[in-house]
Amino acid sequence: MVYNFSAGPAMLPVEVMQQAQAEFCNFNDLGVSVMELSHRSSDYIAVAAQAEQDLRDLMQIPDNYKVLFLQGGGRGQFAALAFNLMGKNAKADYIVTGQWSQSAIAEAEKVGTVRVLDGFAAASEQGPRALASEWDLDPQAAYVHYCTNETVEGVEYSFVPDTGDVPLIADMSSTILSRPIDVTKFGLIYAGAQKNIGPSGLAVVIVREDLLNQACPQTPAIMDYAAMAKSDSMLNTPPTYAWYLAGLVFKWLKREGGLEAMGKRNKAKAELLYSYVDASNFYSNNVHPDARSWMNIPFQLTDESLNEAFLAQAKAEGLLALKGHRIVGGMRASVYNAMPIEGVQALVDFMDKFAKQHA
């Protein structure tokens, strides 16, 4: 059995891929693939509408939020967000906890003024820093942005920041659909698809209606949330096959028990791996316990000279893509929704065997 621990593009549910394979050349007995259907056809519009409804059901999205299926992945939304929300007040607060929240700032600064806020609490001699929960926020800011989970560093918020009357914007690319959330706490949620939704290239945006029609005049139409909402995300030809696959994932999630069930599974997977690492003298994790990610679990070997041997032997046993991001090094196991707990157990068993071999 092969288990893919890639941070993204990540593994998809086998059941979903098998259904897509079966329908690849003959969707709904039409004699053509779904990717060959016109996005204006009634057959494809039904696919798109059902995907949206299933996502609304899963996340309990209120009627006063629009759901958009867009191109450009999560990084495309770094720019689109700023273009859409800085039209009236060209300043925003950005909470930084890692690589992706920092990257979002680089795009927003091209549109308006960004104030950078440290996402971590004051340094302590006791070890890793916990996440901050209070900031000196600008009440006049167009929005406050944060990344719910930093895939590179393995840092995740276990709470929703309180930003008062200022709209809270969340990059949920790596946590969306991993557990229940209260959508009403957010002005806008966006997510690249390639972790818990589907293949890369697609992005999902969930935006409260009162935040539409605030775009900067220079906003490209393809990035304009209001224009996309008015055209049901079909102002241009959308990424039709990725949208279709996302719809299959949403149905799979429903069959698996929805987000309550996913939350329990994901918590159990994370606890299994963290518990082993914490009890080991051979491996370590350097993230504060209160800030540890359920989705991306970095760990280091005490003897880094064994890194390449670890990766080679893991691959030989069907445990793929465990190399940590080049910025932080070490190892990283990404355990999104499609990763079964059996995969995490297989990793723990291998880690234990490797440690004993090199004791």
UniProtKB/TrEMBL annotation:
Positions with a binding annotation for pyridoxal 5'-phosphate: G74, R75, W100, T151, D171, Q194, N236, T237
The reaction(s) this protein catalyses: 4-(phosphooxy)-L-threonine + 2-oxoglutarate = (R)-3-hydroxy-2-oxo-4-phosphooxybutanoate + L-glutamate; O-phospho-L-serine + 2-oxoglutarate = 3-phosphooxypyruvate + L-glutamate
Domain of life (superkingdom): Bacteria
Top EC class, one word: transferase
GO molecular function, one term: transaminase activity
Alphabetized InterPro entries for the sequence: Aminotrans_V_dom, Aminotrans_V_PyrdxlP_BS, Pser_aminoTfrase, PyrdxlP-dep_Trfase, PyrdxlP-dep_Trfase_major, PyrdxlP-dep_Trfase_small
Aminotransferase class V domain boundaries: 2-347
Keyword field contains Transferase: yes
Gene3D superfamilies found in the cross-reference section: Aspartate Aminotransferase, domain 1, Type I PLP-dependent aspartate aminotransferase-like (Major domain)
Modified residues (N6-(pyridoxal phosphate)lysine): K195
Protein's pathway: Cofactor biosynthesis; pyridoxine 5'-phosphate biosynthesis; pyridoxine 5'-phosphate from D-erythrose 4-phosphate: step 3/5; Amino-acid biosynthesis; L-serine biosynthesis; L-serine from 3-phospho-D-glycerate: step 2/3
Chain segments annotated as transmembrane: none
Entry binding sites for L-glutamate: R40
Pfam families, per database record: Aminotran_5
Cofactor info, note text: Binds 1 pyridoxal phosphate per subunit.
Subcellular location(s) per record: Cytoplasm
Keywords: Amino-acid biosynthesis, Aminotransferase, Cytoplasm, Pyridoxal phosphate, Pyridoxine biosynthesis, Serine biosynthesis, Transferase
NCBIfam families attached to this UniProt entry: PRK05355.1, serC_1
Recorded family membership: Belongs to the class-V pyridoxal-phosphate-dependent aminotransferase family. SerC subfamily.
Complex formation: Homodimer.
Function, as annotated: Catalyzes the reversible conversion of 3-phosphohydroxypyruvate to phosphoserine and of 3-hydroxy-2-oxo-4-phosphonooxybutanoate to phosphohydroxythreonine.
Name assigned to this protein: Phosphoserine aminotransferase
Originating species: Oceanisphaera marina
Classification of source organism: Bacteria, Pseudomonadati, Pseudomonadota, Gammaproteobacteria, Aeromonadales
Gene: serC
